[in-house]
Amino acid sequence: MSNAISAQPDSYLEFWNECHLCTLTTLRPDGRPHVVPVGVTVDVTAGVARVITRKSSRKVANILASGGEARVALCQVDGGRWATLEGAAEVCTDEAVVEDAVGRYGKRYGRTPTPDPERVVLLISVERAMGQMLPVRPQMTQAAA
User: CA 9, CA 37: separation in Å to the nearest integer?
Assistant: First the structure.
């Protein structure tokens, strides 16, 4: 499978390294979308996005209820710039993988979460990457408006 993330322009990849809150969309068992704010780290080389969370969360329940083929979407927005990653998610409880994900989160967001024995990591194998990287426009001041 080709790496959908690495095929994107440098500005797209850099955007996923900036500090932005993202959303994760999972599907409930009845098909309704469940959208929540999350922190995301992206491993361009591996084509994987990671989200740390608690194993008792609704998003984990939705992924587990899918029968192993959970389709999810991650999105971040900043002004006219936006990026969405779509793929298959799995829940990982392996301590080393969770610890690695926490370290990556700390690097991107500038803080390390407090230890949590309920922590798991959602591993999203990215199959599709899309977005728009408009140039960042300076904000107008009140006097210029």
Answer: 25
Q: What is the pLDDT of residues 106-123, one digit of tens each?
A: 999 999 999 999 999 999
Nearest to 72 by CA among 35, 17, 29: 35
Q: Please, are residues 60 and 98 in contact by the beta-carbon 8 Å criterion? A: no
Tell me how far apart the alpha carbons of residues 145 and 70 are, in angstroms, rounded to a whole number: 47
Q: For residues 63 and 83, what is the distance between their CA atoms, to the nearest angstrom?
A: 22
Q: What is the mean pLDDT of the chain?
A: 91
Pairwise CA distance, residues 88 & 124, whole Å: 5
Please answer whether residues 120 and 54 qualify as being in contact, where contact means their C-beta atoms are separated by less than 8 angstroms: yes
